[in-house]
Structure formats: structure tokens, C-alpha cells
Amino acid sequence: MADPSTTKKEKKKTNVLQWLFLILVPLVLAIVILFIVLSMLGMDPIGKTKAFANSIPVVSNWVTTDEEAEIERKQRQYESKIESLEEEITAMESDLSSKNSEIDHLNQEIVRLTAQIEDSIEEDGEDETEVENLAKLIESYDEMNPANAAVILSNSSNQVALAILQEIDDAHRADILSAMDPEQAATFTEQLLD
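^ that's the sequence the OP posted. Answer follows.
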């Protein structure tokens, strides 16, 4: 047979559970009905309950209000934007770095081309000076005695002598060539024909 003290304890437990259900179930039902009625009246009982629970120090850690949820959502959204902007900044910095190196390369190319232009201008200036000097020389040879001109041109370089002979008057050229050594006059004549 069962121990009478054990049976009493079991009966007591079932009585407590019965009373608990008799009190707890109607209480929960009453609260649900109250929430429904208050919601229909436009009073937002859930929001007010969350606000009240949030004001209790220990319970506030477990309850999240709509405002807090919205703040957290916005915070996640802003953090996502910040992250994408940081990635964009990194990409732009990389692009800027490559553009700066390209600018440096182009600046070096500009310096090199500028030096080439300056050299070319100096050479053109020298060429112009040479042309002016040649023009003066030709004028001098046009006025010179053909025999003297023949002696001087015979002792000059072939390039200078040819340049002068090409530019002077035809009649004067003939006089100068006739005053030269025949072999040298023949060489100059052949070169003048080319």
C-alpha cells in the first residue's frame, strides 16, 4: 500500500495545479481581452506596456521599444552606409595614387619635350645665323675678283664651296670655275649638277 504522506503530497500538488490553472487561465484571458479592447479604442496597450517595462531597470534589458528598434535599424543602416563609403574612399585613394603617378610621368615627359623644343629652337637659331652668314658670304664672293675667289674656294671645304657656288650669280660662277684648277673645277661642276 502507498504511504499516506506521499498521497497527501500528491493531492496537494494537484490541488495547487488546479487552483493555478483556475486563476492563471482566466487572468491571461482577461488580459488578452483587455488588450484587444484597448487596441480597438486606439490606446496602443502594447506600446505603453513596452514603455512601462522599459522603465523598470532590470526588465529594460529584455524589452525593446519601437523607438529603440527603429534606432537600431537606422544604426545598422548608417553603419552599412559608412562601410560602403569607406570602401569607396579606399577605391578613390587607390585611383588618386595611380593618377598622381601618371601625372608625375606626364610631367617628366613635358620636361623632356620642353628640353627638346629648346634644343630645336637653339638649333633653328643657329641655322638662321648660318643662313645669314652664308648670305653675307655669297654677297662678298659676288663682289670679289674671280681669281681671288677661286683660290679661297679651292682651300675651303667642299660643302662651303658648293653652297657658295650654288648661290652666286651664273656669270660670276663661270669666271670663278675657270680660274680654278681644272680637276677641282670639274669636281665642283659635277657636284653642282647633282
